[in-house]
Design a protein that fits this description.
- This protein is of the alpha+beta class.
- It is built from 6 helices and 17 strands.
- It has 3 domains: 53 residues, RNA-binding S4 domain (Structural Genomics Hypothetical 15.5 Kd Protein In mrcA-pckA Intergenic Region, Chain A), CATH 3.10.290.10; 91 residues, Pseudouridine synthase I, catalytic domain, N-terminal subdomain (Alpha-Beta Plaits, 2-Layer Sandwich); 80 residues, 2-Layer Sandwich (Alpha-Beta Plaits), CATH 3.30.70.1560.
- Strands 7, 8, 9, 10, 13, 14, 15, 16 and 17 form a 9-stranded mixed β-sheet that branches. A 4-stranded antiparallel β-sheet has the order 3-2-5-6, with no helix packed on it. The chain has a two-stranded antiparallel ribbon with strand order 1-4.
- It is elongated and about 70 Å long.
- Its EC number is 5.4.99.-.
- Keywords: Isomerase, RNA-binding.
Length: 244
Amino acid sequence: MERLQKVIAHAGIASRRNAEQLILDGRVTVNGKTVRELGIKVSGNDRVEVNGVPLQKEAPVYLLLYKPRGVISAAQDDKNRKIVTDFFPYIQERIYPVGRLDYDTSGLILLTNDGEFANLLMHPRYEIDKTYVAKVQGIPPRGILKTMEKGVKLEDGMTAPAKVKMLSLDKKKETSIVEITIHEGRNHQVRRMFEAMGHPVTKLKRETYAFLDLKGLSTGDSRELTPHEVKQLRALAETGKVGF
C-alpha cells in the first residue's frame, strides 16, 4: 500500500506536491469515488483516475549508480545542486534513490521507480549489509576496531554489531584505510562511529550493497540491475538469504 499522491507522482502525472493539489481539488477518484483527503493509501488493485483518465503504471526501473562525491542523493534539490537523477537524462520514468549517500560520500547507490521494492530494502527490520571504505585520521588500535564491531554509543543509541578491518595505514601521514560493514541506515552513521572513536573520516566510499559491487564502473557510471539481481535483492530483504 502506498500513499495516493505518491502513486500519482510515480505514474509521471505530476510532482508529489502537485499530486496533492490534484487530490485537494477533487480531481482524483479511487474505485469511482472522489478523494479529497491526503494520506489515503491505495494498492495495485485499486483503480485510480486523474481527471477521469486511469493511471498507466510505469514499467519498473532498477538502476545502480557509482555516485561521485559532491552529489545529492535525492530526486530534486531546492539549491540546484547536482543530484543522482541527473545521471539518467534518458530515463523517462520518475526514479528516486533507495536510501541515501552523504553529499561527500561516493559509491554504490540504487535508484528505482518501484516504491514497494525501495521500501522493502530500506525497512529497518531487513538487515542488508553495506560495506564502506573509510580514510580516517590517526591509526585506530585493534581495541578501537573491536569496540566498533560490538557497537558504538551515539546520541541516538548504540549501533548494531559491525564488521571492521584495517586495510592499510600510513605512519608518516598518520592516516588509515579501514573497511566497515553495517546493516543499519542511520544518517552519517559511519562518519559518526569513527568520530566517536576519535578518528574522524576524511574520505568515504560505499563499496558494496548486499552482493552488488562497483566492478567495471568508474565514478559517475551506472548500469541496470538484471532481473535476477532484483529477484535476489527481494529474497535477501525478505528472508536474509540469497540463492544463486
